[in-house]
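Today's session is about reading a structure prediction critically. Students often jump straight to the picture, but the first step is always the sequence itself: look for stretches that repeat, for charged clusters, for runs of hydrophobic residues. Only then move on to the predicted structure, which in these notes is written as discrete structure tokens rather than atom positions. Here is the chain we will use throughout the hour.
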Amino acid sequence: MIPAVEMIVASGVKPDVAERWLSAIQVTCYEYEINTPKRIAAFLAQIAHESGGYTRLVENLNYSAEALMRVWPKRFPNLQFALQYHRNPEKIANSVYSSRMGNGSEASGEGWKYRGRGLKQLTGKSNYTSCGKALNVDLVGNPDLLLRPELAARSAGWFWKSNNCGPLADAGDFELLTKRINGGLIGLADRKSRYSNILAALPVSTTLA
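Below is the predicted structure for this chain, in token form.
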């Protein structure tokens, strides 16, 4: 099965945007075996949520101090500390992504350099390194390559297959799939809504695998 523009639109993407991304999405789904109704619907729903309908290819980290305490309570345990990072995206990224996912310390600046990009919002130096090798491009040296539509889409497909997301989609385990992609269940209701809308847009004759 090949994803059609109507399915991308059903995931919450504007028609003109869906048309521009159609080729990159089709290439990605073919390359990474995202080729059944459930897999396509789950993949499109997840990347549409992660990218705000394909409108955000770089992670937005412009958090207020109060939001930092809600999202990362262990890292920002009180308002006084969180205010030091208030509305400072680069400083926030270097803090929350430091010393994990292959990144160096907060002072290294790698949290900001390797913040989320692409339709999946690929994050962390380890992912940039592995994905770059798989796609044969230097993502470590030039992270902004993930802003190109083809690589933005293929990096999402690479993450999907590398993290064995296909079987989770086959099983309909949407919550575990979301955790695999997001690391948690942030935005679960929106992801599920997009997923349901895509399935509803499928032809009546389509049998869900």
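Discussion point for the tutorial: The chain has twelve helices and no strands.
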